[in-house]
Amino acid sequence: MSLLDVRGFGHRYGARRALWPLDFTLSAGESIAVLGPSGCGKSTLLQAVAGLLETNEGRIERCWQRLGAMFQQPRLLPWRSALDNIALGLQAQGLSRAARAAAALDMGLRLGLSQADLKLYPGALSGGMQSRVALARALVVQPELLLLDEPFAALDIGLRHELEHLLLAECANLRCGLLMITHSQREALRLADRLLVLGGQPGYLQLQLQPQAPAAARSEAEVLALEAALLAEPAFRAAFGLPAHAAAASSCAHAQVGGDARRGGERAGSFRLRRFAAPGPERSEC
User: What percent of the chain has pLDDT over 90?
Assistant: First the structure.
């Protein structure tokens, strides 16, 4: 079942174009990462999907009832305990105090918080604990679609890895769709079944990448192999303004990856790749 259908969505802020039109769909249980440098329109896309930005070009069909979101900053209410912050969305749904406290406690414990932690206020929590609370708050409402805006960017590598695995496990349990934006190709390759790479200003879709194995089934070795192959792709390097690889090395890496994908092989680092042409010059509007 399709949760999200984006057709010809582009956006302008006044006369300035921020994002060229793009198309994609997201199904229940699927995870998509929108990857790209600063200023390419990632946040514009996420805000439009969330309904926070009026669509002035194309259409976005939203087929969910419950939405969860996690942002770059935890955005916890400082006057509420960790438990009450987790339960905030359940309060908006009209659950009784006892029911939302029980659900928030269960989700907090599953994400590695203790009962003592849940009694604390945000000012007494470490950055990692605040991220656990924010993730629990997003998941406890049992979202059909979860939106992520670089939620683990400020965490150390060990904690980020742990929370990524907890997130994938909970999304699989809920069978919710996941749409995230990120600057990090490694985070995208750990969490997403499919990657959409934006580049340019205004931003446009340059690459679509689909690894052979779904995100939940990828080992760390597979993630690293995929990252190395992606970094050897000339269009990806161009999107992020990276210097070109030596031509021979780049061609060799791409041929190996492309060959695996065409044969349907399952060797680490294999994926299906689709490149998109840059948009042509835009007509003036009189």
Answer: 72
In this structure, what token pair is assigned to residue 122? 């945000």
Closest C-alpha among 216, 196, 214 to residue 206? 196
Residue 81: how many CA atoms within 13 Å on its side-chain side? 13
**Beta bridge pairs of residue 177:** 145
State the DSSP code for 242: P
Helical axes 220-231 vs 247-263, angle rounded to 10° = 130
pTM here is 0.88
What pLDDT sits at residue 23?
Answer: 96
Identify the CATH number of the domain defined by range 2-66+146-275: 3.40.50.300
Query: What are the structural domain ranges in the chain?
Result: 2-66+146-275, 76-141
Query: By the 8 A CB rule, do 118 and 105 touch?
Result: yes
Cα 139–chain centre separation: 15
User: pLDDT of 89-127, one tens digit each?
Assistant: 998 898 999 999 999 999 999 999 999 999 999 999 999
pLDDT tens, residue by residue, 125-145 = 999 999 999 999 999 999 999
Query: Residue 239 to residues 15, 65, 78: CA-CA distances in angstroms?
Result: 24, 35, 39
- How many beta carbons lie within 10 A of that of residue 87, not counting itself? 28
